[in-house]
Amino acid sequence: MNRGGGLTDRIRRAIKDPVLPGNVLRATNTSLKKRDETVAERPDWEDLRERAAKVKDHVLANLDRYLAEFVENARLRGAHVHFAKDAAAARRIITELARRKGATRILKAKSMATEEVELNQAFTARGFTPLETDLGEFIVQLRDEPPSHITAPALHCSAEQIRDLFAREGVTDGRAPTDRRELATWLSLSARAHLRDRLLEADLGITGANFLVAETGTVALIENEGNIRLTVTSTPVTVSLVGIDKLLPKLTDLATMLPLLTRSATGQRMTSYFQLISGALDEHHIVLLDNGRIDALRDPENREILRCIRCGACMNVCPVYRTVGGHAYGWTYPGPIGSLLSPLWRGRGEDHQLPFLSSLCGACTDICPVKIPIHEHLLRMRREAVSAGRRGIPERLAFRIFRYVMQRPGLYRRAARITKRLLPAAARAGLLRRWTDTRAAPQPAPRSFKEMWREDGPRFSKDP
Amino acid sequence: MRVALFVPCFVDVLKPGVAVAVCRVLSRLGHDVIYPEGQTCCGQPALNAGFHRDATCLARRLLDLLAKADPDAVVSPSGSCVLALRTAMEGDHHLLERVFEFSQFLTDRLGVTDIGAKFTGRVTWHDACHPLRELRIREGPRRLLQAVQGLELVEMEPSDECCGFGGTFAVKAPLVSTGMGERKLKAIEDSGAAFVSSTESSCLMQIEGLLEKRGSAVRPIHLAEILGGGAHE
């Protein structure tokens, strides 16, 4: 399963996959259940959400000020700060740094920003591929595919698939346990043993970040496996690639953000490891990534969207994501928030289809820890697609006719009668296949309500 | 109270029995039910497709038409269409605050839960997205169902995941829509209910199409049809 082909092809492939839908459903259900349990422990959850939304709105409205403050403080503590206007610039800065340092053994901690700029591909083109040290990332790297979820990269794989993959790639040897729980432990311990030596012999470590703190120039990272800690401490040079939307004004803002993030993402009160890096590393390069963010913020309507703290809860709860998984969406950020970020930050032709890939059920909006009204923005982007003339002529024509008919009750009556008469024949002729391939055609009633009202209206008021 | 019916177009053409049932319930409660003629569509398909101006034009047309009848309240057997009117008008129409989804009108506006209905059977409840998340309708319909004599309410798990209809979404992305619907069907069937009910005829149309295709014995039935007494009474 990869991201090749058009949107429709990818959706079809995902749905027809014999194991993917089951894997995605199982994994998202588990995350949601844990999330609900730990959220229930916080009676102040709604207050936290409100506060977090306010903090992010404030930062995004004053981004230049906080960026300057962050850069100044990070430099004071000895970090080197770079600014990458776009993906190509980010790749250039980081690969150039590796070249200068003569680094060939490169470690990577889990990072969506590096996925976004396709950093691994840039290194591979130069002859050395960074080693993914996060278990999920390691799995998708072996499978030669991108992550399918922003916090659980290999969520679309079953333990059995990983067992076979690891055996094939020589990560494990010996007989795998048959018990599912034992198997999962065995697989992660095997990966750990496999990665351990290479973790200790690297010369460059690359990370992302969960937050940047302006007042202290701090890079904040949370994780469960300890691989990030090893990545930043075992290498002489560390690079952190971070989107500028991850800024927070104060260290104390983390007290608002972290419980929202960990509970929403994995249903944990706190992750196993939590790093605040401010000047403690031998050599730390922080690459601040724009890549469409500043452009997106020019329209204040988009500000709410950039509140996103990448918890992935909207993916777990989204009925569309739960049906097709992450690869179908076609870019680094899948699910409901991805359907907003992809058109905003990347904006390729097909990305503009994504806001339409939703039933607008609103489950994303309800679960979002920073109160992004995600489904309202999906609808807004649909409106913008229409006013920008990006929808096809057939659709535009259809809605013109629709409006014309619906403004004229007489015409509506006639259209309804014709539809009623033609519906069965149309269904038989296969004209309604987009409905009838999987669903029985609706049967029109013998009389419309209006006809019933005219003929029997007074009787409706009597008890039957 | 003088109550005007707002009958969504697909209810008018495909499920008129639902509107008849609403009419019966309201009359039984002693209200004067009127049906202002000339109703067409609230504009929801245009709204969700991004054709906002067309949607606003149709929403205003419908609200003006209903307002002319000078009702004390407008009641519709579709929370989704009620919401579409609000969204398209961005709250800007004097009639909007008097427009109610059927169950919310009963439980919140009238404060009624037991209307003396009878229905034999085991029913599971589908929380449709728009009523649930936008109109905050969750307990009301359950209270109404629990008060029905002979009815056993059983919960499906989960009850609040989208059925996959989503208006034109159902035909724009038929595979995804069906995939979502199949999970809903599994939840319905696992509940052991003989009937699945909801505030929305649109969701029930999706569910019905899927149930029928797989030859399931479970029957969809709108809340109003249970309360108003219909074929299954």
Overview of the structural elements:
The complex is a heterodimer of chains A (464) and B (233). With 464 residues, chain A is α/β, with parallel strands linked by helices. Chain A is built from 22 helices and ten strands. Chain A has helices at residues 7-16, 20-40, 45-61, 63-76, 87-101, 112-116, 119-125, 135-142, 159-168, 180-200, 227-233, 253-266, 293-298, 313-317, 319-324, 335-346, 363-367, 374-387, 393-406, 409-428, 433-436, 449-460, and strands spanning 80-84, 106-108, 131-132, 204-207, 211-213, 218-223, 238-243, 247-248, 273-277, 284-289. In chain A, the strands form two sheets. In chain A, strands 1-10-7-4-2-3 form a six-stranded parallel β-sheet, with helices on both faces. The longest helix of chain A has 21 residues, at 20-40. Chain A is globular and about 85 Å long. Chain B is α/β, with parallel strands linked by helices. Chain B folds into two domains: 2-109, Rossmann fold; 118-227, Rossmann fold (3-Layer(aba) Sandwich), CATH 3.40.50. Chain B is built from twelve helices and eight strands. Chain B has helices at 9-13, 16-28, 44-49, 52-68, 79-89, 102-109, 129-134, 139-146, 169-172, 174-191, 201-213, 223-227, and strands at 2-5, 32-34, 73-76, 99-101, 118-125, 149-154, 195-198, 219-222. In chain B, helix 6 (102-109) packs across helix 8 (139-146) and helix 10 crosses helix 11 (201-213). The radius of gyration of chain B is 17 Å and the shape is globular. At the A-B interface, helix 1, helix 15, helix 17, helix 18 and helix 19 of A face helix 1, helix 2, helix 3, helix 4 and helix 7 of B.
